[in-house]
Design brief:
membrane; 16% helix; 196 residues; single chain; 53% strand; transmembrane; alpha+beta; binds 2-acetamido-2-deoxy-beta-D-glucopyranose
Length: 196
């Protein structure tokens, strides 16, 4: 017994549909997948840095962050409810906020964050701080948690919280001397992600 040969396949989509599908995928890719913005610590000013006899430190810093939005179609709204901290050996020594603003497409801007703190250091921390000071190499850590919503054209499409962390090593922390930034590192994470 011989089976009948299979009928030829007519089900192929016409090329125009393939082109539309491919174009749509490409557009969605271009429009909806944001490029990761870039943040860099550019400057640290020390306005106040008092170490009391009981190891309580009182601080005032201005941290200057260079923020770049590389997206051509996407602007970013930075929400009010954000927090930036500067720490020494896991102890927060300064805390502040970024003023809410809209970061335009392909925009580079400097964000100045005022940080202040009053905290007590442990004896070990004071000791290692003095050691770091003598070596002219004080490692600090920064962390920024910022709620962001993404705008594409006029639509607020997505909301999430970004977490930017890293180290910033300075040669000194002293209100009478401008610190020199010796090195910085940078790590970007999407902390919470949800669609509107
Ligand atoms: C970038 O954005 C900032 C903050 O919104 C704004 O002040 C600045 O003028 C913008 N720069 C350019 C080149 O558009």
């Amino acid at each position: 017994m011989y089976g009948h040969p299979l009928p030829p396949v007519y089900g192929q989509p016409p090329p125009i549909l393939l082109i539309i599908a491919a174009t749509t995928v490409l557009l969605v890719y271009i429009l909806l997948i944001p490029k990761i913005p870039d943040y860099k610590i550019e400057d640290l000013s020390v306005k106040k840095f008092n170490v009391g006899p009981d190891k309580t430190i009182e601080t005032n810093f201005i941290l200057a962050i260079r923020a770049e939005n590389p997206n051509t179609k996407i602007s970013l709204n930075y929400g009010n409810n954000n927090e930036v901290t500067l720490s020494y050996e896991d102890t927060v020594i300064g805390k502040g906020n970024i003023p809410a603003f809209t970061h335009g497409q392909e925009n580079v801007t400097m964000i100045n964050v005022w940080l202040s703190g009053k905290t007590q250091l442990g004896s070990n921390q004071v000791e290692s701080f003095h050691k770091n000071e003598q070596q002219g190499k004080i490692p600090l850590q920064y962390e920024a948690m910022v709620p962001i919503s993404v705008n594409i054209f006029r639509f607020h499409l997505k909301k999430f919280t970004i977490k930017v962390t890293g180290d910033v090593t300075v040669d000194s922390i002293n209100p009478d001397k401008k610190p020199k930034i010796l090195s910085t590192t940078y790590e970007f994470n999407i902390h919470k992600f949800f669609s509107l």
